[in-house]
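Sample pair:
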Amino acid sequence: MHAATIENSEFPISGRPTDVYPSDVYSSGVSWGAVIGGAFVAAALSLILLALGAGFGLSAVSPWSGAGASATAIGAAAIIWLIVTEAIASAMGGYLTGRLRTRWRSIHTDEVHFRDTANGFLAWAVAVVVTVAFLAAGAVSMVGGAPGENASQANTAAEGYFVDRLFRSDHPITSDNDPFVRSEAARIFDYSVLGGESSAGDSAYLAQLVAAKTGLTPADAQRRVSDTVADARQAEDAARKATAHLLLWIFIALLIGAFCASYAATIGGRQRDHVRAI
């Protein structure tokens, strides 16, 4: 094996292993200082770019109908910005990881390339964990509750809206047992929307409650019950699809970030090895 074919060989020119740089062969392949430093840089840059994107997004939307960008345009722009943010932040963190790691003089170039790739990947993984922990803590503190509690409150609010639609009337009638009737109807309605095998008797009973409250005919009350349940199921399905699409795009963005961090670490590592002492 010629020395010219190996830039960083495990066997020095003398032919005896570990003659010149004995510590390189047995040293760790992970430069944790460089990994942690690159990870924090990637996490910080991710937060900065996410804040910038959120600012642009909020300035583009409007609470008034027909004003500002459409929801489709905002969603597409958010996905593109998420991918760009992950790519830029991960590449910067990976490059710094490769550039700041220790120099392995007596290691074969293939092993050096693998170590740089692994260090970049580790920096990306640490950055993702730090970013997710920070965003989760911030979201919980801003909303003021646990994520499960907030989701439960949101589901309760949506359920209450559809139940109110059931009992909407041009001539509202109040009674002492109105809260009990609404709570009972909400439980039946919620069971039906969530996919429970509600019996025909439950649907007929719910239609009777609606007819008694609103003054509708039994046929109109039954039609209202069927339409409202269908609309609620459609809303649940739309929310499920939107969440699934978002998670898929997050997966793609993180996958791109892992590749950018690993590749950028090899670039930084090569530049680190080319530095010559004066």
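Residues 3-145+252-273 form one domain.
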